[in-house]
Structure formats: C-alpha cells, structure tokens
Design goal:
By secondary structure, the protein is α+β, with helices and mostly antiparallel strands. It contains six helices and eleven strands. It has helices spanning about 5-20, 130-135, 150-155, 165-170, 180-190, 200-220; strands spanning about 25-30, 45-50, 50-55, 55-65, 70-75, 85-90, 100-105, 110-115, 120-125, 260-265, 270-275. The strands form three sheets. Strands 2, 3, 4, 5 and 9 form a five-stranded antiparallel sheet that branches. Strand 4 (about 55-65) and strand 5 (about 70-75) form a beta hairpin. Helix 1 (about 5-20) packs across helix 6 and helix 5 packs across helix 6. The two termini are about 30 Å apart. It binds a DNA duplex through helix 4 and helix 5.
DNA sequence: CTGGGCTCCTGTCAGC
DNA sequence: TGCTGACAGGAGCCCA
C-alpha cells in the first residue's frame, strides 16, 4: 500500500499525535516481517521525539527519563498493507484481528493495522540515529531533496540493463517510488518502462527526475493514494487516486492521446503505460 | 556485481 | 452459492 507519499502523510499525522508523548507500554500481537523485537527493552516511561522518514521507513526516536539521554527508538515499515492509526485519550475501539502493534502513550493509542503482515517494527535501546543509518545504508537518495538530480540518476544507472521501471522500484537509486508512482512518473516523463535503465540519456534523466519529484509532491499534497484501505493516522483517506493517469487504467484511453493504456508485467509487478506517448 | 524469481500473508474479486 | 485462481501499494533472500 504505502509508497513515499503515504508514508510521509502518515509521518506527519503520527508526529503531530505522538511527538512529546510518554510511552506507557508497547504491545506486540502476531509477528510481523522481522520479528526482531531485539533486546526487549522496556520502552515504558520514555518520551517520543520527532518522527522521521527515510524512504518508506519511519523512525521514532525515544528519549530516556532523567537527563533526556538518547534511548534508541522504534523503526517502522508499513509493508504492503500496513497503516498507523491514532486514537487520542481512551477513544480507541477494541483491538481488531489485524492490529498487530499497540503503542500506548499518555496521550492516546497508536496502532499498526496490517492484514498481510509484510510490515515491520524494530526497536531497541541501541537503535539511535547512527544504527538506523547503518541499517538503511543501502537506500538510494530521497527524491524530494536536492540530492535527487539528473546527474545522480544518470550515474547510478550507468551500465544497468534492468528495465527503468524496475530500477526505480529497487530503491538503491532513489527511495520511495513504488509501483503506482513508478508508472505515473514514467508516463509523465514520456519514457517506455521497458527501456534498459543504462540507456537513458542525460536529458531524459532530467525529465524523469523532474517527473518523480513532481508526482510524489503532488501525491503528498493530495494526502496520498487510497486504492483500498490507506488512511493517515487520523483515519483520513488520500485522494491522489483521482489524479493517476495510467496506473490501474488498462484498456482505458490515454489521457494524452486516447490510445488504450497497456498493462504489462515486469518482475511480477504490473506496469501501466501508453505505448504511443512513452518511447524507448 | 547484476538480474531474475520466489517468498512472506491475508483479503478481494472475477470466472466458472 | 461456492470454489479456485489471480492479483494487490514491499522488499529480502537465494541462485545462476
């Protein structure tokens, strides 16, 4: 479910809710992707710092009691079907079968809802900024920062024979671009998703960098994409699904030229594109 | 090192 | 109505 825009929208709403809150308890239900409960540290009594995002990961630093000494934190991933929900005070409804993590604070309850359980939560006293950076060292650049340039993209793709769509998804060149936004960005850039990544010219890299940034920024502004069940931490849906131009539109006319949008499979994932508007 | 395929898990929907 | 198979927003791992 969640790509960069959905995770960013989640980050903002979660941060608003829990930054500064004191943790009362952390309860785990069914195991998630990485059952790394690490050292089962007692997080109770610690204060949540500013929630940060790296790619599709959310990091929630914790601060110890007395001197406010750093005490690691919680690293979340929403996987394919995960969402974080916030209920202030005692307003939370009864825990459902797919609610697998509960972070109880003095301000309310934060819940991870994740039917498919591809999500993850890692925590521990050593999980500070440095440790998180090491864990996520293989990730590519953030597309909404100045590090995301045509120069970087062109260089990172040099010699790579995978299709550009798959290179975007892989996450080692640029982070946060998932299946929806990869198709959308390539459509906006006019690039055939099957093109070998290493064959992108500099000008086309320029256009792709711009398209990725643009589509992600628009999606964040739209509150994300809700295809089925995405909600931000306040339970609100996104509405970028109304703005997609090719994703999930197989057979429908291309918004630019009217030719039917095509659906192909790349690396076991669906890709949508217009064979007329997008060239090799 | 690269690329391709499989896998984790549950829900939903199309087709017979 | 009920069953079966395909497919779904991610990404780590194994193998050639």
């Amino acid at each position: 479910m969640p790509e960069l825009p959905e995770v960013e929208v989640t980050r903002r709403t979660v941060n608003e809710a829990v930054a500064g809150a004191r943790v009362m308890a952390l309860q785990m239900g069914k195991p998630l992707r990485w059952p790394l409960g690490c050292d089962p540290v007692t997080v109770a009594g610690q204060v949540v710092g500013a929630v940060q995002r790296r790619g599709k990961y959310l990091w929630m630093p914790l601060q110890g009691d007395a001197a406010g000494s750093p005490a690691g934190g919680l690293l979340w991933h929403l996987g394919m079907s995960g969402s974080l929900g916030w209920w202030p005070g005692q307003s939370a409804p009864a825990r459902g079968v797919h609610d697998h993590v509960e972070l109880l604070t003095d301000r309310g309850l934060l819940r991870l809802h994740d039917p498919r359980r591809f999500g993850a939560l890692v925590w521990g006293p050593s999980l500070g900024e440095g440790q998180v950076a090491r864990l996520l060292a293989g990730l590519g650049v953030e597309p909404l920062t100045e590090a995301w340039t045509a120069q970087h993209l062109h260089r990172a793709l040099m010699g790579r024979r995978v299709a550009i769509k798959q290179a975007l998804l892989a996450g080692d060149v640029v982070v946060g671009v998932g299946n929806i936004y990869a198709s959308e960005a390539l459509f906006r850039a006019g690039i055939d998703p099957r093109l070998a990544a290493g064959k992108l010219s500099k000008p086309r890299c320029e256009r792709l960098v711009h398209a990725v940034r643009e589509v992600l920024a628009e999606a964040v502004a739209a509150g994300g994409t809700t295809l089925r069940d995405f909600r931000n931490a306040l339970g609100q849906q996104g509405h970028f699904q109304q703005a997609t131009r090719v994703y999930d539109r197989a057979g429908l006319p291309c918004v630019a030229c009217g030719q039917p949008v095509r659906r192909i499979v790349q690396g076991q994932r669906a890709t949508y594109f217009c064979a007329t508007c997008q060239r090799r």
